[in-house]
Amino acid sequence: MTDLVVADGSVQMTASAAVFDCDGILVDSESIWLQLISEVLAHVTDTDPEQFHGLSVDDTATGIAALTGAEPSAVRADLVRRYSARLTPGVAPMPGAIALVTRLAAAVPVAVASNGLRADVEMMLDSIGLLDTVHVVRTLSDVASGKPAPDLYLDAARLLGVEPGGTIAFEDSPAGSRAARAAGMTVIGVNADPAVTLDCDARFSSLTDIDAQLVPTPERENQETEAP
Cα angle vertex 176, ends 193, 50, to 5°? Predict the structure, then answer.
């Protein structure tokens, strides 16, 4: 199990591992995604693109198709093509992301669990210099169901060799926080918009607000000591 103590922005955690969402947590790409959705739905009235925040391209395509009458497969292909093209020039890291991931990865195994496609996620992590820092990357390409289903988080914990209940998850979207919660993880929400509801154990506006010290659980320390 994890222990989480929050006081004046300082987070003291005891955990076996940490898992980060990618879009909107580690890289500044969520705004690109939502802008694309806004353009696609420009002629659909009374529709808030925020409803697709954190959803996979499959679920988003299904939702847009229901609103527009288009074929889901065609919508998906268009979204993938246009989103990947906008990511190609590179993305910026979210404030505090590189420092926090690097610090935690030096203490415990760290994974990325993203609703994005593998090619896009790996490109973005490489763009900000974190691809070789994290130990596991799981994407929509690797599981049957994306967030809000718990599959990505469960798969990440399995590959890290840890129990979900001993893992901290960092999320910025309702779908992502529900996925991490369903997986049984302790959830830290990171989102500056109070209108966005997150199912989390602690919440911050930015990763820069988190002065986190993550200490391996005794079980994890014993595993590392006994490893050949």
Answer: 45
Task: Answer for the pair 165, 181: CB distance below 8 angstroms, yes or no.
Answer: no
| CATH number, domain containing residue 162 | 3.40.50.1000
Residue 137 to residue 155: CA distance in whole angstroms: 10
Which residue do the tokens 């989480």 mark? 4
Please indicate, yes or no, whether residues 155 and 208 belong to a single structural domain of this protein: yes
Statement to judge: residues 71 and 96 lie in one domain: no
Distance CA 62, CA 105 (A): 36
Closest by CA to 80, choosing from 47, 50, 115, is: 115
Instruction: Give the tens place of pLDDT for each residue, 33-80.
Output: 889 999 999 988 788 888 888 888 999 999 999 999 999 999 999 999
For residue 159, which of 176, 175, 136 has the smallest C-alpha distance?
Answer: 136
80 within 8 A of 57, measured Cβ to Cβ: yes
Q: Do residues 72 and 153 share a domain? A: no
Among 19, 13, 16, residue whose Cα is nearest residue 219: 16
DSSP 14-26: EESEEEE--BTTT
* Pair type for strands 17-20 and 110-113: parallel
- With 0-12 / 13-18 / 19 or more C-beta atoms within 10 angstroms meaning exposed / middle / buried, residue 211 is middle
Residue type, position 97, single letter: A
Question: What's the pTM value of the predicted model, to 2 decimals?
Answer: 0.84
* Residue 16: predicted pLDDT: 85
Write the single-letter amino acid at 59: D
- Give the number of domains in the chain: 2
Q: Which residues contact 45 (CB under 8 A, 6 or more apart)?
A: none
